[in-house]
Amino acid sequence: MTHAGHLPARKPALGPAQIWNMSFGFLGIQIGFELQNGNVSRIFQTLGADVGELAILWIAAPMTGLIVQPIIGHLSDKTWSPRFGRRRPFFLLGALLASLALFVMPNAPVLWVAAGMLWIMDASLNITMEPFRAFVGDNLPDRQRTMGYAMQSFFIGTGAVLAGALPWVMTNTFGLSNVAPAGEIPETVRWAFYIGGAALLAAVSWTVFTTKEYSPEDLARFAAAEGEAAVMPQRIQRSAAQFASGGAVWIIAGLIVAALVAIARGEPRPAFLGDIEVAKDLYVLAGLIVGFGAVQLAASVLRGQGREQSGFMEVVSDLFAMPKTMRQLAVVQFFSWFAMFALWIYGTPGVTEYHFGASDAASAAYQDGADWWSLMGSVRNGLAAAAALGFVVVAAKIDRCRLHATNLTLGAAGFAAMLLVRDPALLWVPQIGLGIAWASIVSLPYAILAGSVPPEKMGIYMGVFNIFIVVPQLLAATLLGFLVTNLFGGEAIYAMVIAAVSFVLAAAATLLVKEQGE
Fold it and tell me: Average of pLDDT values for 351-373?
């Protein structure tokens, strides 16, 4: 991709090799995410965490995404260097930090160190990932964006295949032990993290050094020529009074939730609760509600003082002035990611207990089940990689919203099949629907979104869009433990039922989305 000399008025199409290079870094990012998603619950349980504590320990991942992605989106929108570009400096910084975290995580001596490393690892991966979403919107014309995000999805699937298979390969090919003394991480997991860290840095570096970016002036000219600059109507700004009243309502609601949790956990215990266990995790939910109210109160003060020129006010203002298509997609993302977080938290304990009959993390049966589930993750993501390439062809025949709704419905069937299939050898069957749905979740919503936001705000809106990935994960982290304990007697596999229902709701919401221009 060359930016020297005179550029055409409209953003030029890129060749397959150029799209390949600009997306290749996602291979490494997903290796990091998949090692995290497939093994962190295993590490936590090995270091002494109870199944009921997993959800709250996992809260680190979405919390870091909630904070980091909008900030990085804002900063990358404001960054430009003729030599280093706009997004690429963030790719490289995040990759360096994430690789370091992957080397440290499997050597955590105690649970609190592992939980802390999850914060660092997820923050670093988010620093790298957020600008990659905006990168496609920056460099590709709308007609190629489905292909660009599908290529990212292909590398997400491929990276996840490699990462998911690593612990199993370490055991069955290289003969490393997947069992360790109580409180120690198995050799297979440690070496998988070491290899993954090196692969992450190498893949991201490939994209950094083989691609270039358009300058802000070039992007503005392309947008004017293609009509994209007028995509977003004049925004109606929320007044200081509206921010203040909204913030007060949210804070009061959060305090009420906290008070109800305190009453439910207090002595004497309210009789109407019966056998229902109210976990302290729900205090986190109350804190999130209060926090959202506090953000609005802070925005009220700044707006009242006329202090508009800050990254904080830009993010908050853009959140409340989202384009209609983005608001509709937010509902889809909410239910989609609630389901996926249930899979990541409860997949390993669910399969090891339901399909392998093991709940003791120190037992060989548990470690065999965890390795097998990790391998099923590779099957799922391999199918996702293949499905992503198919989307490029299918999306030309039906609109992207109907395609996404169909894919999510297949994913719901996959979640349901997790309970219907009892033989571990047949667990590949549910992965078909789950793989197709996953490929769709990480590509089609972004292709739809990229055409509905102004190019000069591509980074910040991709970061704001991440809020609707993070919030359902935070709710899952605080509510799933409560639901699994009280509705299903603590049997982790039944979290897949909740996930199936969530996917059905996401599919229904997708049919209500109207793409820009419809």
Answer: 83
